[in-house]
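dumping this here before i forget
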Amino acid sequence: MTEAGPTGDALVEMLAALANPLRLRIIAELAEGRDYVSHLARVIGVSGPLLHMHLRRLEAAGLITGSLELSDDGKAMKWYEVTDFSLHLTAPALAEAAKTLTRPDPEEGS
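structure:
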């Protein structure tokens, strides 16, 4: 991200990640505080594998971060939390971000 806002590529990735109702629900839950994967799956009502897929997409977009921690009984637990991001979408902000686009479509890759 730049001082003015995310680059065009980063903005496209962030918006694409947010353009899914389940991922919006994940962000909403994590906005209340960090949570571990199995609890988050139960709260949202999805399977672990499906949740992992969506968490990876949100993490790749820089909207959440995950960390592996050991519980008191020695089990590894993956915790996620929302990053400190802010999106203020205006026509001038989008025009600035568009100037930095390097890929025509993020789904197609490089």
